[in-house]
Structure formats: structure tokens, C-alpha cells
Amino acid sequence: MLTLKELCGGLPLDPLPELQPRDPNVPHAPIRVQELTHEEEKLAVQNALRYFPARFHELLAQEFAIELRTYGHIYMYRFRPDIDMRAYPITDYPAKCTSAAAIMHMIMNNLDPKVAQFPHELVTYGGNGQVFSNWAQFWLTMHYLSEMSETQTLVMYSGHPMGLFPSLTTSPRLVITNGMMIPNYSSREMYDKLFSLGVTMYGQMTAGSYCYIGPQGIVHGTTLTILNAARKNLKTNDLAGKVFVSAGLGGMSGAQAKAAVICGCVGVVAEVSEDALLKRYNQGWVMELVNDLDNLVALLKNARRRKKPLSIGYHGNIVDVWERLVMEYEATGEVLVDLGSDQTSCHNPFQGGYYPVQISYQEAREMMHQDPVNFKVLVQESLCRQVAAINKLSAGGMYFFDYGNAFLLEASRAGADVGRKDGLHGTTFKYPSYVQDIMGDIFSLGFGPFRWVCTSADPEDLKKTDALALSVIEQLSKNSIPCSVKQQYDDNAKWIKEAGEHNMVVGSQARILYSDQEGRISVALAFNKAVSEGYLKGPVVISRDHHDVSGTDSLYRETSNIYDGSAFCADMSVQNVLGDSFRGATWVALHNGGGVGWGEVMNGGFGLVLDGSEEAKTRAENMLAWDVSNGVSRRCWAGNQNAKETIQRTMMTEPRLRVTLPHGIEDDSLLERALNPCF
């Protein structure tokens, strides 16, 4: 098995590693549909050979051609490293600067088999969220990071390490772009072709930016979503005996079962992959497994009656679950589900993101590449059946929301009755996006998924950071603040208090906490001080999900509650990355695609290493302030009252901040009178 020093030594060429067959004991990405012409196939192999000296081309050309035609992409399985892939303590990495070692720690966490959905295909989550496009890119990136100094920046083009370039000590050490396209060519069909050619990739959000922290990253967001959905639509804070039904336990969707239990309700989550289901069960995130609908309904009814938190993983198709719940409703008049959603990877519905109910899981995996035309027909028929069942239960009183995975978008394209309307503010449906209806106002208060990683890899450091963060949040909650802000602080204080009990950590020693600008800065400074004083054993990397106040422009999700016509615009996310880069981020990333799919969203993120220095303190203060205020300002200008009040309070505490505020129209008839003199 390799050492970290050997892993950072560059591409292993003398000798070449032995050719490895695909390991049947590891979950693998679905075979991709590859529709390249003969000339394009030649180009794909030629592109892959660029990484290797000519003396290896005769051998590798045939090998790569077979991979391309067999799997739809050249992953370079021969070069998958023989190492225990995980986030090692930062001091173990052979790096010349702390920032580089921290980035290595984050990369290896994203590829940890306990964390990654399809680790051998370099997919972290979402079915196609790549860390790299092939294993040669991984080797070269680790080598460059081991050699990088504090006056160099590593530049990444859609997984490809373009190289180390001279820069300033104040510059980011790493700049990532994933999937950047000339706008008219950002189509799903073009993506499929270019990924097969090896010239672009889909980085999802935190897969390609090296900031994924396992499904914990979405547990907290899902918890807050369920809690606030209940407050708004069920008019209660007590979810005992309430039932939440959804689909997906593979990548980020694996959080749903755990979140339901934390909220105190009964969670029923369907999953077609037995591997994914058992993974969550063995992690303790799913409490009961069932593969029979009669048993599922009996378990659900019993837990509902006893009002005990329970997570049930159903091994089967979610459409069967919804249709069985409809049968119960029609037979008894009782709707057994209170809240419903879906977290299948519908941004990629025809290549493993959604499995149709008409055929088995294994049949679907074969059909999607052997007969893609008819597979698409089955997927769309299945979506229509799913929506029909959801509609009946919703009419009976269930509250259903779209979780930003393009479920309603793809269902509408399939012809399902989702009340699609295309207009000035983009496309809307009869069921709201969870941002639009539940979380949008929370974003406008400046609260979003702030997170940190203890690079010492020591669980004790994580416990200490939990305590530090809790102390900060509880103190902020005592200040004179609006009730809406206090509720968010209190929800998050409860989360941190209980986080250790819920067995959240998968992979790196990480935590997520929804916080606003003041909270993020205060927590970061407390961590930096703790590193400086030796209270923590190593630096802390702070980051966030791209799904945040400022990080993402997506009219189907993060900016679905923008109503000034700018929901189609991506200035906010691009400005955010640019601003973070020169205000102190250790690395930045800008992505096309993420969550709702390629061409449907622009998003970006950052990583910042807190090493205990005064420079790190200054970087955190400046960068985090921009990282939140940018999005709050945009939401304010779009007319959100929460955002306006938030940015006004922020300007009172920071005299250098001057934001253009909108003036609302006082007379609603003014516009009609101006445009229609006969009004």
C-alpha cells in the first residue's frame, strides 16, 4: 500500500501500476451513454494520452478505448492509487505550506469510500458530482500541492490541473472552475459529449470544490427545512407522530432519515440501491429496514400512533410507496403522511439519477445505456405516476415541497400535472421550492450552511470546536435582535448541543452550522484564537455549502424567491467568488451546474484555513463579511424585506459598508395608470 509521500510523487510511470479490474464489492457509477462519432472517440483517447509520455501510448491507447466504449468515460482505472483513501491528519502530508496540506486533506475526504458515492469513478455525490475526471488528474494535483509554496497558485480547469502559477502571498492558493461553458452551448447533450471527451466535468457543488463533509452537510439543512415546513404549514413545533416521506439515501439524500429523527417525526425514505440503503443503516442513520409494503405501512402506523421518532428505509421504488399510501387514503379516508418531498438525483434522470418503477434496479442500470430511448420513456412514465399519487395525497392535506433536485422540472418535461407556469420570474409549479416557501426568508436573514473541518483529524478537536461555536451562538442570542434572528440562533444552538449524540461524522472531523454574518465571523475568530493558543491540535478549515445566501444563482432553488426579473441572472454567484478571492480565501471555486443540473445554475464556494495567525484573523473578518452581505444585498434589492432589514442593521455596525437600498412603490395602481392612461 502506498504512503502519502509516494502518493505525492507524481504519476507512477516506472513501472506502470498493474491494470485493475473493477472491484465488484464497491458501488460503481452507472455506465454512461456515450454517443461519440468515430472521430470524437479518437479525440477522447488522444486527450487522455496527453498525460503520459509517448512510450506508453501503444499500451494505454487500447486500454483507454476499451474503457470509453465499456463505461462511457475514461476514468483510468489502472491509476487508481492503492492507498487507504481518507482525510489524514494535516501534519502527515508532505507539503511545503499549511494551505496545501489542508487542501490535500479535503480532497482525500471527498474520495473516501465511506464518504463518496462512487469512489472509483471519483464521484462524491449526486450520481455524477466529480472530484476529478480521471485518476491521472488526482495524481498530478497531489504532486503540485506537495510542491506548492505560498507564492504560487494551483489552477484547476474542470478537474484538470493546469499548473502552478506565480502569485502573491495574499492570493488564493487554489482557483477552481468546473463546467464553465459559452452560454449557448451549456446543454445536457453538450455536457455528455464533452465529459466523454475528457474536457469538462460536473462538479456538483462541494464535490468539485473539495468541500464536501459527508451527508452531515445536508442533515442540518434538511432538519431546518422540515422544522420550518411544520411551523409554516402544520402550525406546530412538535413533530411527534408526524410523518415525512421522501426518496433517496445515496449521497446527500442520505441525510433525510437522520434529519427526520432529529426533528422528532417518523421518516420513510425509499431507496432502490441495496448498497446505499445498507450503508446508511450500518452508519446508524436508518433505524429500520423493510422491503415489503404491508410491513412498511404497519411500521408507519405504529410509530405514528406511539409518537416515537423513527427512520424507516424502504428497499424499493418510491412510486410504489406513494401509490400504496394513496390506496390507504382511498380505503380509509386517512392521509398517513404529513410532509412529502423527493431527493432523487433528478438533475440527471436518464443516467442513474432516477430509477423507473416499471423495472428492477439492475434492469434499469443495464437499460439506461443499452436502450436509452426507451429508458427515457419509462422514466417519464414513472415520474407521471409519482406525481399523480402525490397530487391525490396533497388534495387530502399533505404538504409537498420540491427539494431543489429538479424533480418538478423533470416531471413537467414528462407531462406530469405539476401546474407548470413559465413567466417573468422563471418557471413555477403548483408545489413550491423549499427555498421559495420555507428557507428563502432564512437566507435573506443572512443564515446559511457555514461549516468547518478540524484538520488534526482528532475527534477531541471537533468536540472543542462544537463547544466554542455553542458558546458564541448562545451569547449572540442574548443580544437585542429581531425574534426571527433569535429563533435561528436558538435552533442552531440546539443543533450543536445534540450533534455529537447523533453520530454525524462520516469522514473528516467536520461540522455544519447555519449562521449569519456576525455568527460566522465570531465563530471563525474563536477557532483561530484556539489554534493560536494551542487549544486545538491543528488548523481549522472553514467553508460552506455553495447552497447559501450568496453562493448560488438558481431560479429553481436558491434564488427561486427573487421576483424582480433577475432570477435568470448569475451576477451574485460570480461576484461572490471574485470577492472572496481577493478578500482572503485560501481557495475558491466557480461551477456551472449543481443540485438542479447542468446549465440550470451557477454556484461557487471557498475554503479558508485558520492557522492561528493574525493574517488568518484578518482574512476571516473581511472575506466572511463579503460572503454573506453580497447575497443579502442582492435579495434586498430584489425586494425582500427581511434582507433589507438585515443589511440595514449590518451597515449600522460597519461604516465602510454602503449598500444601495430600493424604494418601494406605495400606490399599487401607479404602474397600471402609467402604462394604461384609460385605467
From TrEMBL:
Domain Urocanase C-terminal per the UniProt entry, residue ranges: 441-648
Single GO BP term: L-histidine catabolic process
Gene Ontology molecular function: any one: urocanate hydratase activity
InterPro entries cross-referenced by the UniProt entry: Urocanase, Urocanase-like, Urocanase_C, Urocanase_central_sf, Urocanase_N, Urocanase_Rossmann-like, Urocanase_sf
Source superkingdom: Eukaryota
Keyword entries, A-Z: Histidine metabolism, Lyase, NAD
SUPFAM superfamilies tied to this protein: Urocanase (SSF111326)
Residue ranges of every copy of the Urocanase N-terminal domain listed in the record: 85-211
Coiled-coil positions: none
UniProt keyword annotation of Translocase present: no
EC number(s) stated in the UniProt entry for this protein: 4.2.1.49
Cofactor: NAD(+)
Domain Urocanase Rossmann-like, first and last residues per copy: 214-438
Reaction(s) catalysed by this chain's protein: 4-imidazolone-5-propanoate = trans-urocanate + H2O
Pathway field: Amino-acid degradation; L-histidine degradation into L-glutamate; N-formimidoyl-L-glutamate from L-histidine: step 2/3
Family per similarity comment: Belongs to the urocanase family.
Name the record gives this protein: Urocanate hydratase
Organism: Biomphalaria glabrata (Bloodfluke planorb)
